[in-house]
Amino acid sequence: MSTTEMSNTDMNMRGKIIFYEDRNFMGRHYECMSDCADMSSYMSRCHSCRVESGCFMVYDRPNYMGNQYFFRRGEYGDYMSMMGWRDWIRSCRMIPMYRGSYRMRIYERENFGGQMYEMMDDCDSIMDRYRMSDCMSCHVMDGHWLMYEHPHYRGRMMYMRPGEYRSFREMGYGGMRFMSMRRIMDSWY
């Protein structure tokens, strides 16, 4: 493979998102191809975006905090109305493309306590599948996942990459219960 082909492949795997100050892709814009912890140094506001490649989690507060939403390739001309947000995107995290097995352990209590179940595929309701009424910690061994507040992949969400998550409450999700989980698949890119 030539250097040119290799760099094009790297660009496609990296992802690219363009943020616009105004709705419908108007006004100043900022192109992003990696994580951005605080967009305020690039733009005063953001009301629309276009994902040219890859997948991204966007956040309504700096430093990957606050409400999050998953964006994949496509155009989001008025995402604030679509998601019901009152504020605009303040930070974003690129989700790396992943091809491999998926494995996550979910726990009923903090610090990996209570019932434990190992998941390798999507789960549209932990209550229906496992008779588990709450999930308060998890360990993501393989893959990248989205956890949702309600069954059937609805409500607020949280992006989970490989690692240990001992307490959702300490992460700022104390009043939120995660009731469904979905793998971020390479076909989404």
UniProtKB/TrEMBL annotation:
Domain Beta/gamma crystallin 'Greek key' as annotated: residue spans: 15-53, 54-96, 143-185
Function according to Swiss-Prot or TrEMBL: Crystallins are the dominant structural components of the vertebrate eye lens.
Biological-process GO terms, alphabetical: lens development in camera-type eye; visual perception
Pfam families per record: Crystall
A GO molecular-function descriptor: structural constituent of eye lens
Keywords, in A-Z order: Eye lens protein, Repeat
Family: Belongs to the beta/gamma-crystallin family.
Signal peptide: none
Organism: Xiphophorus couchianus (Monterrey platyfish)
Gene3D superfamilies recorded: Crystallins
Name of the protein in its database record: Beta/gamma crystallin 'Greek key' domain-containing protein
Domain of life (superkingdom): Eukaryota
Repeat keyword on record: yes
